[in-house]
Write a structure and sequence with these properties.
4 strands; alpha+beta
Length: about 80
C-alpha cells in the first residue's frame, strides 16, 4: 500500500479506523468523502450521507481523542445548506 502523496489524502488504513469510530458511535449511512485536516494530526473531515433520506452532513473526526463533531448540513453540491 502506498502512502498518501498529498497532505489532505486519507489512506485506506485511516479510512478503516475512521469508519470504525463512526460505527462505534452508532452512525449509519454512506461515507461520501474523507479529507485529512492539515496541521491537526489525526483529525479528518468526513462527509456522510444519511441512509434514510440522503441528506449529507460534514463531521470532524479525531482518531486520537476518539471524538466526532458535527459541523453542518450540506446540500447536493457539498455547500453549506442555508
Amino acid at each position: 500500500m502506498s502512502e498518501a502523496t498529498n497532505a489532505n489524502e486519507v489512506t485506506q488504513r485511516e479510512m478503516i479506523r475512521i469508519i470504525g469510530l463512526f460505527r462505534k458511535n452508532g452512525f449509519k449511512g454512506e461515507y461520501v468523502s474523507f479529507q485529512h485536516v492539515v496541521d491537526e494530526g489525526a483529525s479528518y473531515f468526513v462527509v456522510m450521507s444519511d441512509e434514510n433520506n440522503g441528506t449529507q452532513g460534514l463531521f470532524k473526526a479525531d482518531l486520537l481523542a476518539g471524538t466526532i463533531e458535527f459541523q453542518y448540513m450540506l446540500d447536493e453540491n457539498h455547500e453549506v445548506a442555508k
